[in-house]
Write a structure and sequence with these properties.
Elements (H helix, E strand, L loop, with lengths): L6 H21 L2 E6 L14 E7 L4 E8 L10 E5 L7 H9 L2 E3 L12 E3 L9 E5 L9 E2 L9 H18 L8 E5 L3 H17 L14 H7 L2 H7 L26 H9 L4 E6 L7 H9 L5 E10 L2 E9 L3 E6 L6 H4 L1 H12 L5
Parallel strand pairs: 4-7, 4-9, 10-13
Antiparallel strand pairs: 1-2, 2-3, 3-7, 3-8, 5-6, 11-12, 12-13
Helix pairs in contact: 3-4, 4-7
Length: 358
Protein backbone atom coordinates (compact mmCIF):
# COMPACT_ATOMS: atom_id res chain seq x y z
CA UNK A 1 0.00 0.00 0.00
CA UNK A 2 1.42 3.38 -1.02
CA UNK A 3 2.23 5.84 1.74
CA UNK A 4 1.93 9.62 1.60
CA UNK A 5 5.17 11.52 0.96
CA UNK A 6 6.88 12.99 4.01
CA UNK A 7 5.50 16.41 4.97
CA UNK A 8 8.97 17.90 4.98
CA UNK A 9 9.20 17.30 1.20
CA UNK A 10 6.15 19.50 0.65
CA UNK A 11 7.54 22.17 2.94
CA UNK A 12 10.82 22.18 1.05
CA UNK A 13 9.01 22.35 -2.29
CA UNK A 14 6.78 25.28 -1.33
CA UNK A 15 9.58 27.89 -0.97
CA UNK A 16 11.00 26.76 -4.32
CA UNK A 17 7.62 27.27 -6.01
CA UNK A 18 7.23 30.66 -4.38
CA UNK A 19 10.72 31.64 -5.55
CA UNK A 20 9.94 30.46 -9.08
CA UNK A 21 6.69 32.45 -9.11
CA UNK A 22 8.56 35.51 -7.87
CA UNK A 23 11.19 35.19 -10.60
CA UNK A 24 8.56 34.70 -13.29
CA UNK A 25 6.58 37.70 -12.04
CA UNK A 26 9.69 39.86 -12.06
CA UNK A 27 10.42 38.91 -15.67
CA UNK A 28 6.85 39.31 -16.93
CA UNK A 29 6.01 42.25 -19.18
CA UNK A 30 4.56 45.26 -17.37
CA UNK A 31 3.07 48.61 -18.26
CA UNK A 32 3.18 52.15 -16.93
CA UNK A 33 0.60 54.70 -18.06
CA UNK A 34 0.16 58.47 -17.83
CA UNK A 35 -2.93 60.58 -18.53
CA UNK A 36 -2.01 63.73 -20.48
CA UNK A 37 -4.74 66.39 -20.12
CA UNK A 38 -2.60 69.22 -21.54
CA UNK A 39 0.35 69.59 -23.91
CA UNK A 40 2.81 72.48 -24.22
CA UNK A 41 1.99 74.41 -27.37
CA UNK A 42 -1.75 73.58 -27.26
CA UNK A 43 -4.09 76.27 -25.92
CA UNK A 44 -6.19 74.94 -23.06
CA UNK A 45 -7.08 71.36 -22.13
CA UNK A 46 -6.90 68.75 -24.88
CA UNK A 47 -10.35 68.16 -26.44
CA UNK A 48 -9.67 64.42 -26.54
CA UNK A 49 -8.36 61.76 -24.16
CA UNK A 50 -4.61 61.17 -24.51
CA UNK A 51 -2.65 58.53 -22.61
CA UNK A 52 1.04 57.74 -22.97
CA UNK A 53 3.06 54.95 -21.48
CA UNK A 54 5.71 52.27 -21.74
CA UNK A 55 5.22 48.54 -22.07
CA UNK A 56 8.27 46.95 -20.49
CA UNK A 57 9.03 43.64 -22.21
CA UNK A 58 10.95 40.85 -20.54
CA UNK A 59 13.86 41.19 -22.99
CA UNK A 60 14.78 44.67 -21.73
CA UNK A 61 12.89 46.55 -24.43
CA UNK A 62 10.64 49.47 -23.44
CA UNK A 63 8.04 50.29 -26.14
CA UNK A 64 6.59 53.80 -25.87
CA UNK A 65 3.03 54.47 -27.04
CA UNK A 66 0.38 57.16 -27.39
CA UNK A 67 -3.26 56.13 -26.95
CA UNK A 68 -6.09 58.43 -28.04
CA UNK A 69 -9.65 57.42 -27.31
CA UNK A 70 -12.31 57.82 -29.97
CA UNK A 71 -13.90 61.26 -29.88
CA UNK A 72 -17.24 59.71 -30.87
CA UNK A 73 -17.90 56.61 -28.76
CA UNK A 74 -14.80 54.98 -27.21
CA UNK A 75 -16.83 52.16 -25.64
CA UNK A 76 -18.20 51.00 -28.99
CA UNK A 77 -15.81 52.26 -31.68
CA UNK A 78 -12.98 50.03 -32.96
CA UNK A 79 -9.44 50.00 -31.57
CA UNK A 80 -6.69 50.52 -34.17
CA UNK A 81 -3.04 49.69 -33.62
CA UNK A 82 -1.18 52.13 -35.89
CA UNK A 83 2.34 51.22 -37.03
CA UNK A 84 4.47 53.82 -38.82
CA UNK A 85 6.92 52.48 -41.42
CA UNK A 86 10.65 52.91 -41.86
CA UNK A 87 11.71 50.77 -40.10
CA UNK A 88 12.68 53.49 -37.66
CA UNK A 89 9.94 56.13 -38.08
CA UNK A 90 8.30 57.32 -34.89
CA UNK A 91 4.60 56.85 -34.18
CA UNK A 92 4.40 60.61 -33.58
CA UNK A 93 4.84 61.06 -37.33
CA UNK A 94 1.65 59.10 -37.96
CA UNK A 95 -0.10 60.88 -35.11
CA UNK A 96 0.76 64.48 -36.09
CA UNK A 97 1.19 64.29 -39.87
CA UNK A 98 -1.29 61.59 -40.83
CA UNK A 99 -4.26 60.38 -38.76
CA UNK A 100 -4.08 62.04 -35.31
CA UNK A 101 -6.19 64.90 -33.88
CA UNK A 102 -3.57 67.67 -33.75
CA UNK A 103 -0.94 69.20 -36.03
CA UNK A 104 1.72 71.89 -35.98
CA UNK A 105 0.90 75.45 -37.03
CA UNK A 106 3.64 75.65 -39.62
CA UNK A 107 2.37 78.87 -41.20
CA UNK A 108 2.32 80.69 -37.87
CA UNK A 109 5.76 79.54 -36.68
CA UNK A 110 8.20 82.43 -36.36
CA UNK A 111 11.36 80.34 -36.30
CA UNK A 112 11.99 80.40 -32.56
CA UNK A 113 10.32 79.04 -29.46
CA UNK A 114 7.89 76.18 -29.13
CA UNK A 115 5.64 75.45 -32.15
CA UNK A 116 1.88 75.84 -31.70
CA UNK A 117 -0.35 72.77 -31.85
CA UNK A 118 -3.77 73.05 -33.48
CA UNK A 119 -6.78 70.71 -33.34
CA UNK A 120 -7.42 68.65 -36.49
CA UNK A 121 -11.07 67.64 -36.99
CA UNK A 122 -10.30 65.27 -39.89
CA UNK A 123 -8.68 62.72 -37.59
CA UNK A 124 -9.23 58.97 -37.53
CA UNK A 125 -9.85 59.39 -33.80
CA UNK A 126 -13.22 60.81 -34.83
CA UNK A 127 -14.32 57.22 -35.50
CA UNK A 128 -11.87 54.95 -33.65
CA UNK A 129 -9.60 54.51 -30.65
CA UNK A 130 -5.97 54.53 -31.84
CA UNK A 131 -2.78 53.15 -30.27
CA UNK A 132 0.38 54.63 -31.82
CA UNK A 133 3.52 52.59 -30.99
CA UNK A 134 7.20 53.49 -31.40
CA UNK A 135 8.64 50.25 -32.81
CA UNK A 136 11.26 48.77 -32.96
CA UNK A 137 13.39 49.74 -29.97
CA UNK A 138 15.50 52.76 -30.93
CA UNK A 139 12.54 54.34 -32.73
CA UNK A 140 11.07 57.51 -31.23
CA UNK A 141 11.09 57.11 -27.44
CA UNK A 142 11.30 53.31 -27.35
CA UNK A 143 14.61 51.98 -26.07
CA UNK A 144 16.53 48.89 -25.02
CA UNK A 145 17.89 48.73 -21.46
CA UNK A 146 20.42 46.08 -22.50
CA UNK A 147 22.30 48.45 -24.78
CA UNK A 148 20.68 47.05 -27.93
CA UNK A 149 22.63 43.80 -27.87
CA UNK A 150 20.02 42.20 -30.15
CA UNK A 151 19.48 43.74 -33.57
CA UNK A 152 15.73 44.05 -34.23
CA UNK A 153 14.27 42.05 -37.11
CA UNK A 154 10.86 41.43 -38.62
CA UNK A 155 10.21 38.34 -36.50
CA UNK A 156 11.49 39.97 -33.31
CA UNK A 157 9.31 43.05 -33.86
CA UNK A 158 6.24 40.88 -34.53
CA UNK A 159 6.79 38.99 -31.27
CA UNK A 160 7.38 42.21 -29.33
CA UNK A 161 4.25 43.88 -30.73
CA UNK A 162 2.21 40.78 -29.93
CA UNK A 163 3.42 40.89 -26.33
CA UNK A 164 2.81 44.64 -26.28
CA UNK A 165 -0.84 44.10 -27.26
CA UNK A 166 -1.39 41.35 -24.70
CA UNK A 167 0.05 43.55 -21.97
CA UNK A 168 -1.84 46.65 -23.12
CA UNK A 169 -5.18 44.85 -23.18
CA UNK A 170 -4.47 43.36 -19.75
CA UNK A 171 -4.28 46.96 -18.51
CA UNK A 172 -7.26 48.10 -20.62
CA UNK A 173 -9.71 45.16 -20.50
CA UNK A 174 -12.68 47.47 -21.16
CA UNK A 175 -11.57 47.63 -24.81
CA UNK A 176 -11.44 43.86 -25.36
CA UNK A 177 -15.03 43.71 -26.73
CA UNK A 178 -14.32 46.46 -29.29
CA UNK A 179 -13.47 45.46 -32.88
CA UNK A 180 -9.69 45.48 -33.25
CA UNK A 181 -7.65 46.29 -36.37
CA UNK A 182 -3.95 46.39 -37.18
CA UNK A 183 -3.16 49.33 -39.47
CA UNK A 184 -0.17 51.28 -40.73
CA UNK A 185 1.73 52.53 -43.73
CA UNK A 186 4.89 51.99 -45.75
CA UNK A 187 7.20 49.25 -44.38
CA UNK A 188 4.68 48.32 -41.70
CA UNK A 189 2.76 46.58 -44.50
CA UNK A 190 5.37 43.84 -44.13
CA UNK A 191 4.75 43.52 -40.39
CA UNK A 192 0.93 43.76 -40.32
CA UNK A 193 -0.06 40.42 -41.96
CA UNK A 194 2.12 38.12 -39.80
CA UNK A 195 1.26 40.12 -36.66
CA UNK A 196 -2.46 39.80 -37.42
CA UNK A 197 -1.98 36.07 -38.08
CA UNK A 198 -0.21 35.66 -34.74
CA UNK A 199 -3.15 37.32 -32.99
CA UNK A 200 -5.62 35.18 -34.96
CA UNK A 201 -3.83 31.97 -33.98
CA UNK A 202 -3.80 33.07 -30.35
CA UNK A 203 -7.57 33.50 -30.49
CA UNK A 204 -8.02 30.07 -32.11
CA UNK A 205 -5.80 28.42 -29.52
CA UNK A 206 -7.81 29.88 -26.66
CA UNK A 207 -5.92 33.05 -25.76
CA UNK A 208 -7.66 34.24 -22.62
CA UNK A 209 -7.65 37.88 -23.79
CA UNK A 210 -9.79 37.11 -26.86
CA UNK A 211 -8.81 40.29 -28.69
CA UNK A 212 -11.67 41.06 -31.10
CA UNK A 213 -9.45 41.07 -34.21
CA UNK A 214 -11.04 42.38 -37.42
CA UNK A 215 -7.79 43.26 -39.39
CA UNK A 216 -7.49 45.79 -41.96
CA UNK A 217 8.11 67.79 -43.42
CA UNK A 218 8.92 67.62 -40.18
CA UNK A 219 11.19 70.05 -38.55
CA UNK A 220 8.58 71.35 -36.08
CA UNK A 221 8.01 67.89 -34.61
CA UNK A 222 11.67 67.68 -33.59
CA UNK A 223 11.61 71.19 -32.11
CA UNK A 224 8.44 70.44 -30.14
CA UNK A 225 9.12 66.96 -28.83
CA UNK A 226 12.74 67.63 -27.84
CA UNK A 227 11.52 70.39 -25.53
CA UNK A 228 11.90 69.26 -21.90
CA UNK A 229 8.40 70.35 -20.67
CA UNK A 230 6.87 68.44 -23.59
CA UNK A 231 8.81 65.32 -22.62
CA UNK A 232 7.70 65.70 -19.02
CA UNK A 233 4.06 66.04 -20.13
CA UNK A 234 4.32 62.84 -22.15
CA UNK A 235 6.03 60.93 -19.33
CA UNK A 236 9.26 60.19 -21.22
CA UNK A 237 11.90 58.32 -19.21
CA UNK A 238 14.75 60.76 -18.64
CA UNK A 239 18.17 59.94 -20.09
CA UNK A 240 16.90 57.21 -22.43
CA UNK A 241 16.61 59.10 -25.75
CA UNK A 242 18.92 62.14 -25.85
CA UNK A 243 17.54 63.45 -29.16
CA UNK A 244 14.25 62.30 -30.72
CA UNK A 245 14.22 61.78 -34.51
CA UNK A 246 11.10 61.44 -36.62
CA UNK A 247 12.78 58.69 -38.62
CA UNK A 248 16.08 57.00 -37.83
CA UNK A 249 17.00 55.10 -40.97
CA UNK A 250 20.36 54.15 -39.49
CA UNK A 251 18.77 52.00 -36.79
CA UNK A 252 20.16 48.43 -37.00
CA UNK A 253 17.41 46.21 -38.37
CA UNK A 254 17.21 42.87 -40.16
CA UNK A 255 14.60 42.59 -42.91
CA UNK A 256 13.55 38.96 -43.13
CA UNK A 257 10.12 38.99 -44.79
CA UNK A 258 10.45 39.44 -48.54
CA UNK A 259 6.88 38.65 -49.64
CA UNK A 260 3.61 39.52 -47.87
CA UNK A 261 1.32 37.69 -50.32
CA UNK A 262 1.19 34.40 -48.39
CA UNK A 263 0.43 36.24 -45.15
CA UNK A 264 -2.49 38.07 -46.72
CA UNK A 265 -3.81 34.87 -48.27
CA UNK A 266 -3.71 33.09 -44.92
CA UNK A 267 -5.67 35.88 -43.20
CA UNK A 268 -8.16 36.15 -46.07
CA UNK A 269 -8.76 32.40 -45.95
CA UNK A 270 -9.73 32.77 -42.29
CA UNK A 271 -12.30 35.42 -43.20
CA UNK A 272 -10.62 38.49 -41.73
CA UNK A 273 -11.46 41.82 -43.39
CA UNK A 274 -8.66 43.82 -44.97
CA UNK A 275 -8.33 47.13 -46.79
CA UNK A 276 -5.31 48.21 -48.82
CA UNK A 277 -5.07 51.81 -49.99
CA UNK A 278 -2.59 53.80 -52.07
CA UNK A 279 -2.03 57.47 -52.76
CA UNK A 280 -2.13 57.68 -56.55
CA UNK A 281 0.84 60.09 -56.43
CA UNK A 282 2.95 57.76 -54.29
CA UNK A 283 6.39 57.69 -55.87
CA UNK A 284 7.87 55.34 -53.24
CA UNK A 285 5.40 52.48 -53.70
CA UNK A 286 3.40 53.26 -56.87
CA UNK A 287 -0.19 52.06 -56.86
CA UNK A 288 0.38 50.02 -60.04
CA UNK A 289 2.87 47.88 -58.09
CA UNK A 290 0.36 47.43 -55.28
CA UNK A 291 -2.27 46.33 -57.79
CA UNK A 292 0.22 43.87 -59.29
CA UNK A 293 0.77 41.98 -56.02
CA UNK A 294 -2.96 42.05 -55.23
CA UNK A 295 -3.48 40.22 -58.54
CA UNK A 296 -1.15 37.50 -57.21
CA UNK A 297 -3.79 36.73 -54.57
CA UNK A 298 -5.94 35.48 -57.47
CA UNK A 299 -9.22 36.49 -55.80
CA UNK A 300 -12.49 36.87 -57.70
CA UNK A 301 -13.60 40.50 -58.15
CA UNK A 302 -17.00 41.19 -56.58
CA UNK A 303 -17.27 44.93 -57.35
CA UNK A 304 -15.24 46.17 -60.30
CA UNK A 305 -13.14 49.29 -60.64
CA UNK A 306 -15.26 52.36 -59.89
CA UNK A 307 -14.82 55.90 -58.52
CA UNK A 308 -15.61 56.73 -54.90
CA UNK A 309 -16.77 60.15 -53.73
CA UNK A 310 -16.62 62.69 -50.91
CA UNK A 311 -19.00 65.67 -51.08
CA UNK A 312 -19.93 64.74 -54.64
CA UNK A 313 -16.32 64.83 -55.88
CA UNK A 314 -14.30 61.87 -57.18
CA UNK A 315 -11.52 61.30 -54.65
CA UNK A 316 -10.17 57.98 -55.90
CA UNK A 317 -11.06 54.59 -57.29
CA UNK A 318 -11.88 51.31 -55.57
CA UNK A 319 -12.38 47.62 -56.23
CA UNK A 320 -13.61 44.86 -53.91
CA UNK A 321 -12.68 41.19 -53.96
CA UNK A 322 -14.11 38.05 -52.46
CA UNK A 323 -13.27 37.25 -48.83
CA UNK A 324 -13.71 40.85 -47.65
CA UNK A 325 -10.72 42.50 -49.36
CA UNK A 326 -11.07 46.15 -50.44
CA UNK A 327 -8.55 48.14 -52.46
CA UNK A 328 -8.75 51.92 -52.90
CA UNK A 329 -6.69 54.74 -54.33
CA UNK A 330 -6.74 58.26 -52.91
CA UNK A 331 -6.61 60.94 -55.58
CA UNK A 332 -3.74 63.40 -55.25
CA UNK A 333 -2.21 61.68 -52.20
CA UNK A 334 1.44 60.76 -51.79
CA UNK A 335 3.11 57.91 -49.89
CA UNK A 336 1.46 58.70 -46.54
CA UNK A 337 -2.02 59.29 -47.94
CA UNK A 338 -3.76 60.75 -44.81
CA UNK A 339 -1.05 63.40 -44.59
CA UNK A 340 -2.04 64.76 -48.00
CA UNK A 341 -5.78 64.08 -48.02
CA UNK A 342 -6.98 63.91 -44.37
CA UNK A 343 -10.67 64.58 -45.05
CA UNK A 344 -10.87 61.99 -47.81
CA UNK A 345 -8.96 59.36 -45.83
CA UNK A 346 -11.17 59.91 -42.79
CA UNK A 347 -14.25 59.29 -44.97
CA UNK A 348 -12.57 56.17 -46.37
CA UNK A 349 -11.72 54.61 -43.00
CA UNK A 350 -15.07 55.58 -41.48
CA UNK A 351 -17.04 53.88 -44.25
CA UNK A 352 -14.84 50.78 -44.23
CA UNK A 353 -14.89 50.35 -40.43
CA UNK A 354 -18.67 50.69 -40.54
CA UNK A 355 -18.92 47.95 -43.17
CA UNK A 356 -20.23 50.35 -45.81
CA UNK A 357 -19.02 50.45 -49.44
CA UNK A 358 -16.63 53.29 -50.19
Amino acid sequence: MATAPPRRSLLLLLPQLLLLRSLLAAAAPSITTKAVPRLPGFSGPLPFSLETGYVELDDGVRLFYYFIQSERDPEEDPVLLWLTGGPGCSALSGLVYEIGPFYFDFEGYTGSGLPTLLYKPASWTQVSNVIFVDSPAGTGFSYDTTGNRTIPSDTIVIQQLHTFLQTWFDEHPQFLPNPFYVAGDSYSGIIIPPLAMKIAKGIEYGDERLINLKNSTYFLSEVWINDEPVRESLGIHKGTVPSWLRCDFDIPYTKEITDAVDGHLALIAKGYRAMIYSGDHDASIPYVGTQAWIRKLNLPITDNWRPWYVDGQVVGFTRTYSNNLTYATVKGAGHTAPEYMPKECLAMIDRWLSGKPL
